[in-house]
Amino acid sequence: MTVAIEMGQTTAGAPAAIDLEELLATRLLVQGNSGSGKSHLLRRLLEQSARWVQQTIIDPEGDFVTLAERFGHLVIDAEDHTERSLQAAGERVRIHRVSTVLNLEGLDAENQMRRAAAFLGGMFEVARDHWYPMLVVVDEAQLFAPAIAGEVSDEARKLSLGAMTNLMCRGRKRGLAGIIATQRLAKLAKNVAAEASNFLMGRTFLDIDMARAADLLGMERRQAEAFRDLERGQFMALGPALSRRPLGLRIGPTDTQPRNAAPRLLPLPEAALEDARAIILAAPPPETARPQRRPAPDLLNQLMAAKQAAPEIEPDTAEPPLSAEQLAERRERLDRILRAILAEPDAGFRAIGVLYQEFVVRCRIEGLGAVVPELADFRRMLTRARAGLGADMAEDDAWQDVLLRAAILPDDMQGVFMMIARAAKEGWPCPSDAAIARAYGTHSLRRARHLLTYIEEQGLIVCQLDGAGRRIVTLVELAWATAAADPNADDLSAETACTG
Prior knowledge:
3-stranded antiparallel sheet, AAA+_ATPase, ATPase_Atu1862_pred
């Protein structure tokens, strides 16, 4: 059965429609300058297809929350949720087939990217049994898949760009049909834009954008000037779900209206404001306490202050050899610095290079700059720390066999294996999927389960479920076994169990 979604009329007055089934297989790219009618086009498409297919809208400005009253979309205010909870919400959205609006209004650019990436990741990583067809609309897509680095951190940009690339490049087999709208193609990452086979090009004025739009639609360069003459709500269409030849169309009306309406001219008040200076320049009201994002530690200023306070050291002075007690104290100080870094909420998901840089700076602040471990040694320290092991415990004879077994695994998996081994040795509850994912540095619970399966395939562990569905992990040949525990427990309880 072919489902035709009516979008409006062509320039010749005929009905203009989109083949919904073809759209699900070939994706859509919308371009137009601000005020060209992109959001109106997306709203029309969502309204007309709401009864046929599940939908999710990544909404940076809160324009689409009004769909909830008319069409029953669930509005998720990202400001009230963590990345972890949004990832779980993304998985549940697909399992229960609920249309949603992810409202990112009120967040800064970096947090918008992080939360959108977590939500998209949850939808992408869901099990195969729940790969139902779904429209995923991303408004202002250049914010989430920028062509060049901006003011946000590299980590946030990589997370968001990776999620958008998965949506557009690998989403089709999972039933996800990406519909992305952008003000300028030049601002959008090419590997994201290139996966769309359908195009709706609205009004644009820059020569480079007009030329790229003409190339995508198969028009001659001399015809590119036509994009300047398009009115608001007019688009040039091309693609297997739209038209085999460039086709002009005008988007029809919508049943709902955006929460942020377009500005209109209003006459100024007739009565003059008395004592305008006193009213406008009055003292501001007292600030209300608002929860603020915890600022990053000002490590450079701390380093400079510590350097100025440190006594001058003669360059010719040789450091005397350290006693065993002094070496143990130094090792404990390094472990304490590493534990402080890992105690930060997002430390489990930061790149190892970023963690190492912060570790070096903190070591210098503590006066340990001359003995900072190399990156390879830091990796081993990090692996032990994520497993909850101190340096003294890792050197225990009982752990030598565990370390030898861990060596057959890739470096990034060894910490997970040692965390499980410690829980098994102490008889603690088996770490949950969330705890394993955090130790591995990912938000994906599915990836954590695959990791556990991989370690089992290497002959290192055996996983079992008891009658209540709780997981028990046994280390092969060591006769160590964890206590039974729910694999779906939250991250906090798992970490508490494994740190004693």
